[in-house]
Amino acid sequence: MTDQSALLSASCEKTGAEPDLVAALREKAAALGFDAVAIAPPDLPPETGARLRDFLVQGLHGDMGWLADRPERRTSPCGLWADVRAVVMLGANYGPGHDPRALQAQKDRAAISVYARGDDYHDVIKPRLKELARWLIGSAGGDAKVFVDTAAVMEKPLAMRAGLGWQGKHTNLVSRDLGSWLFLGALFTTLPLPPDPPGRDHCGSCKACLDACPTKAFPAPWRLDPRRCVSYLTIEHKGSIPRDLRPLIGNRVYGCDDCLAACPWNKFARMGRDAKLSARDELTGPALAELAKLDDAAFRALFRKTAVKRVGREKFLRNVMIAIGNSGDPSLVPAAEARLTDAAAPVRGAAVWALSKLLPERDLSALAERHRGENDPTVRDEWRAALRSDEG
Questions:
Q1: Spatial distance between the Cα atoms of 383 and 386, rounded to a whole number of angstroms
Q2: Dihedral pair phi/psi, residue 145, rounded to 5°
Q3: What pLDDT is stored for residue 44 in this prediction?
Q4: For residues 110 and 103, what is the distance between their CA atoms, to the nearest angstrom?
Q5: Sign of dihedral through CA atoms 346, 230, 157, 132?
Q6: Could you tell me if 273 and 92 are in contact, meaning their C-beta atoms sit under 8 angstroms apart?
Q7: Ramachandran sector of residue 21 (left: φ over 0; alpha: ψ -120 to 50; beta: rest)
Q8: How distant, in Å, are the alpha carbons of 54, 145, 241 from that of 349?
Q9: N or C: which end of the chain has fewer CB within 10 A?
């Protein structure tokens, strides 16, 4: 045992028996608004690192370059912080009181992922983690670091290691008590807290989540190709969305809940109780026509404090144009046409595509003639593709 470990053990003894400390930790976490808490050892199975390396070698991370930045730090908590002796994994339930997929039938409305309809979970959960860390240090000594999806931490494998649940075939964490609706946070500590039993897979032969994916982004169970995932395409992907995937996105303008919502374990989940994480009424099915009008100031005001704000107006309006094109609603033509002069080329290009789906050939050709002065090569390519489609 190292001198540091001896000091940590003495610190635990000084503040009380370990079971008492862990019980108090769970009680404090619940008081701070966490719905689940469990402890993992500071390591991950070797296959976790092997899967990550294979994922990166295949280029499946797409535009998410940060995933390829020093991947060795992700494969073990000790790679991120050598002094860590235990990882406290915490979950906050954001379960909706309805099936979010119902919005997809309202073609003139926008479907925003449930997690992004309330305050940004990073900003809500991190202060609570910091408070929990301060409490732990004050109660038992040692040191601590907290993470909420912003560092080289593999939260889902660690949550399974801690016993919060298991990674379903959709690669997300599933809890027997809370279904697929959990925000995760991690508290690394130098205290040698006793680990909980790891989670066990309870998916069985079910593949409802895989079948629910609109873009068939799962080449196999437990394997996701983010480059086809609607969440990746509408949030992480830069520039124009591949044309063959656009019709499959439907009216999803930010993220996708389909694989999560399809999980049968959700029937045991209760509705999220945290008001800050709860959906705002104005973000539950907003009208596409209104979203298409947003300038930068209006975009920032509407999505204040939410995760959507971080994606920026340009990507978001690009997604809105795709949704308008998928609506089949000619009344939305003016909303798309107004974006043909937008300052952002990806928005103009997506508007061209939307209009190609809503306008008859003659009207589209006349509109193209009026915009012959377009100087961005990607947007000109959208016009050529749209007119060729009409000719075909």
A1: 5
A2: -135, 145
A3: 80
A4: 8
A5: positive
A6: no
A7: alpha
A8: 34, 44, 10
A9: C
- With contact defined as beta carbons under 8 Å apart, do 102 and 284 qualify? no
Written as six digits, the tokens of 348 are 């103009």
What distance in Å separates the CA atoms of residue 31 and residue 9, rounded to the nearest whole number?
26
pTM of this prediction?
Answer: 0.88
pLDDT per position as a tens digit, 222-245 = 999 989 999 999 999 999 999 999
Backbone angles phi, psi at 274, to 5 degrees: -85, 115
Cβ pair 43, 78 in contact under 8 A: yes
Beta pairing partners, 256? none
Catalytic residues: 149
pLDDT band at 285 (very low <50, low <70, confident <90, very high): very high
Whether 207 contacts 193, CB under 8 Å = no
337 in helix, strand or coil? Answer: helix
Distance CA 162, CA 75 (A): 16
Give the SS3 label for residue 317.
Answer: helix
In the DSSP assignment, the letter for residue 236 is I
Cα–Cα distance between 120 and 126 in angstroms, integer? 10
E strands, the chain, where?
36-40, 86-93, 111-112, 144-147, 166-167, 173-174, 182-189, 252-254
